[in-house]
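Data availability (excerpt). All sequences and predicted token strings are deposited with the supplementary files. A representative entry, Xanthine dehydrogenase family protein molybdopterin-binding subunit, is shown inline so that the format can be inspected without opening the archive.
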Amino acid sequence: MSNDAATAEAEGTAETVTPVPEPIPHGLGASLPPADARAKTEGTFPYAADLWAEGLLWAAVLRSPHPHARIVSIDTTHAREMPGVRAVVTHEDVPGTPLHGRGGHADRPVFAADVVRHHGEPLAAVAADHPDTARMAAAAVIVEYEVLDPVTDPEQAFEAEPLHPDGNLIRHIPLRHGDPEAAGEVVVDGLYRIGRQDPAPIGAEAGLAVPRPDGGVELYLASTDPHGDRDIAAACYGLSPEQVKIVVTGVPGATADREDQGFQLPLGLLALKTGCPVKLTATREESFLGHTHRHPTLLRYRHHADAEGRVVKVEAQILLDAGAYADTSSDALAAAVAFACGPYVVPNAFIEGWAVRTNNPPSGHVRGEGAMQVCAAYEAQMDKIAKKLGLDPAEVRLRNVLATGDVLPTGQTVTCPAPVAELLQAVRDFPLPALPKDTPEDEWLLPGGPEGAGEPGAVRRGVGYGIGMVHMLGAEGADEVSTATVKVQNGVATVLCAAVETGQGFTTLARQIVQETLGVDEVHVAPVDTDQPPAGAGCRGRHTWVSGGAVERAAKMVRTQLLQPLAHQFGMSTELLQIADGKITSYDGVLSTTVAEALDGKELWATAQCRPHPTEPLDEAGQGDAFVGMAFCAIRAVVDVDIEIGSVRVVELAVAQDVGRVLNPAQLTARIEAGVTQGVGIALTENLRTPRGLIRHPDLTGYALPTALDTPDIRIVKLVEERDVVAPFGAKAVSAVPVVASPAAVASAVRAATGRPVNRLPIRPQAAVATGT
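Structure token line:
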């Protein structure tokens, strides 16, 4: 600054320099902030629990206190006579098809009629003019039970009396691949148990039902599959799908199908019966009792390997505990069996997989279902091979990793990018974190936290690896299709697509796609309801792929409409014109105009669909091209373990992942970090205990979620952008596979630190106490 300028500034006469605003992120590849971020931080986001309607009634659901019982009688007289009670409904009040369920299995009643099959199963529902009245009336329903012995051990389900008219066996998949007589020089065995995890959404389930003049009903729900929920509700209410409308409200976090139909369906019944709007907000206890959980799994493995550590044959038995109803257990079992050998080349594989009913709480779709359970087991087996041969665990894995062009045990050729070796090498070669100093100032570094019970001299550091794989979209012939409409009017674009924003970032992605394709800055994504064409459930990365693909196609059709008049005017094809930074230019520079000028008051719109290539069901030998695409992740875990008391602190997780293409860097990083953190909870703390089928401590005190203090340093050391040519934009789903790999990596690191086998998740303190201590 010159002396004159300095003097002028000091005297207050210098000109004010207006700062240049930061450019707003734009299009694919930019870290565009979520459109709902401000509303959520300010507390104005429209969650279902905040909804209101004139003449509102409140609902409550009576749930079974027993995991297994015969219902002798249900007496609703006292509840109906209570002042303020407007309606009480039971199984006798379900007018249509009384069964519902997901995954193609309609095996679950709206209300238990003759038999209670799990703790928390709905028996009746009440509508009253005050929430306290509704709860007291639900408690006043008198149910006489004949308590039965519950079947809670899935191994006993094979010989037990049928718990359901459809029997106890939901599905059996025998996979046969290669030579059954093949054998290796080294054989390792393992028995592994994976506990039950809960999705534990930030907000418990809530909903509002409003009767319609045509005799139908509108449901305002945090649904992740509105059209699927509508069809189930319509069948149970005895209505046509057109008479039931679901409006999706703000979803308070979802890892997949988080909604509890055990209160959704009674909610609509009460609205139809009373002719009034009815609202229900579940307590945290009701949330734990109502929605589905991750499948507890028992796994028996035997690996054969040669003297160099190369796997020759894998034999495994996988048993999924589906709980009382089938839900999505068939899909989870298919993933578990297909990926039972992991992202490794296994020439001979013989896997038996079963999903069975028990009187435990129902299991369903939770992020990485099936794949997470087997990953913990096959990675433990790889550690055992390395230990038996005296080899480095990472080296043993590198000698076996899968690559593009290899064949899965299902017989399907891996045609998508599979840079597994590159991912593993990246995390293996990443510098290790510094060792903690044995000084009082650094006591917070000890397992157990500040002033923990452990001693620095008892702490051992371990390094372990986990490599996970998941499939994207549906499998085994599922018709994955989504429809989207893009409209442009007055320079503003609107996207209509029934893809629900569950936190995976679809609405942000849709805005980026339209910005990239049309050069329009202002893009709005319309609220979701079932008046729009279906887009399917919000899981397995399908909205990034299928719904994003539909938005892209619709936007490209609008782009053609926009460019055709200009191309015709200058005698060229639309392919010779490009849109960038809000401008339209031709390849030779003759044409140069803005998008706003080209629109000039026009209204353009187009509707398009995206449907990936078809898949096929696994056959009687577990063979078939069952998956559209796959994603992979490698994680190196570093842990500190107090080998005297068994406490574990995860120091660092180094992550390398194949993502196809980075569409939103900030959003992608957040999704990976969230998945890794969820995996830490699965590894160390999250275990929904159900002794004799009863959910113990159904709250966030008894169910220990990892907090910010439990989250380790997460280092994303490499993102491999090798585009999948069959996927729109070439991108892959990123959320599920870190959940799959991180628990296995943490368990591997604890094994390295303690020398213990660690064959159960979550890891119990006694399993982390070193031998001889």
